[in-house]
Amino acid sequence: MEKGDGFMWMDTGMVVLYLAVLIGIGFRGRVKDVKGFIAAGGRYGTFTIFASLSASYIGGGYSSGNAAEAFSGGIGMPLALFGFSLSTILIGRFLVPGVRRFEGEATVGGVIGRSYGRAARVLTGIFSFVCCAGVVGAQMGAMGLVFNVLLGIPPRLGILIGCGIVMLYSTTGGLSSVIMADMVQFMMLAIGMPLLLFMALDRAGGAGAMLKTLPAEYLNPFNGTTPSGFFSMFLTMMFGEALAPPYTQRLLIGRNPMGTARATILSGVFSVPFFIITGMIGMTAFSLGITGEAATAMPALVKEILPVGVRGLVMASMVS
After folding, report:
1. Residue pLDDT, tens place only, 228-242
2. Closest by alpha carbon to 203, among 279, 302, 296?
3. How many Å apart are CA 136 and CA 80, to the nearest integer?
4. Dihedrals φ, ψ of 44, to 5°?
């Protein structure tokens, strides 16, 4: 039996309790019409938009995924993700202040439809669905992996459990419930990820000692690629995720454009240290030899490093 396994039930209980709270949020905020479902009405302030927007990219791809890439290749991917950070800041600075003319809309299709007509709106809806279906598929795969590593649940069953819970609270409570869950998840991970890195570096003997154990190429951003390949990835992160439906929807439901613009800029700035932290988590997991699989670098480190209780909170936010 591994050290701490006797207390694993406490962490598992915290995960179960957290997921039950999410379901409760959905039923408490049960929506009755489309306007309520998409959270139209512009009632969200700067911090709420900032937290929800940030939680949208804190998910599997930009946390566990970034850690996995850093585990297997070093600093290249964390630095390439700065393209997303720059894009978010520029959107907040130059595009968000103009959303007032789309007041009342809460979807990308609504914005396009108001500008170019019904046919364009329908086409945008189709492409948005295809885009989001791919993203959700990737997130569900990551969720199954996290359930498996943290709780020992088979990946397919983890996907079914996670997907079922998300569908339940988001369908019954609409975007308002999603935003409430985002705020909780953001605050837990904004504290949990730096704490995980601090404790992992302490185990490794400090940042300097950890870096010395890495292969030299891990500190080269062009490791496994070329300068042009790296900058292509940077531009892909910058433009490929810009104004994606989940992000754009949150830009349209703010109380006022200036507050939403500030929230967007703050989210872009916040993403810079977050990408550095999650990238260093992946490299520290490699240095410590926590796991042999890149995809499990972050959840395996959570299970190994964090103390009982804190581990449960971070586990809960990761599976949400």
Report:
1. 999 999 999 999 888
2. 302
3. 22
4. -105, 135
